[in-house]
Specification:
single chain, 27% strand, Rieske Iron-sulfur Protein, 4-stranded antiparallel sheet, alpha+beta
Amino acid sequence: MAELKRRTFIKKLWTILGIAAGAELLVTFSGFFGAKKKPLFDDSQHLIDAGKVSSFQLNSVFPFRSGKFYLVRLSDGGFMALSLKCTHLGCSVMWNEAKKEFLCPCHASSFDQFGEVINPPAPRALDSYPVIIREGKVLVDISKSVRRNKFENSQVTYA
């Protein structure tokens, strides 16, 4: 008689566990298939609002460490967003205001205000990010880094 109770108990336990596992699968799949489809990339999440055009002085560089770029305001009023990463081994470059150049602390590469290599071993110019001027604001699209070999006027955005 004790064996029957044990068998009955084990059967009921397996039944309950099976129902729980089935319910868990049902919830998982209903969430997966029933959810509204969202785009993989939402452009608004990748646009960093750097500020108003008028708040950036001519011929200056502003670090945006959280966005991993420097915003450069050129002497002619144009904007460029340059990556923090050195093109040699990916170390973070720092802006040296006194020398007016980006310096890499790892292997002494240096770059001018346009991101062009002044001192190797960096093999090419700093990567850049697209800059958008909208309603008097400077926006930087950090979803699309642009690999550059050298500076070109087309890489500058004007208000």
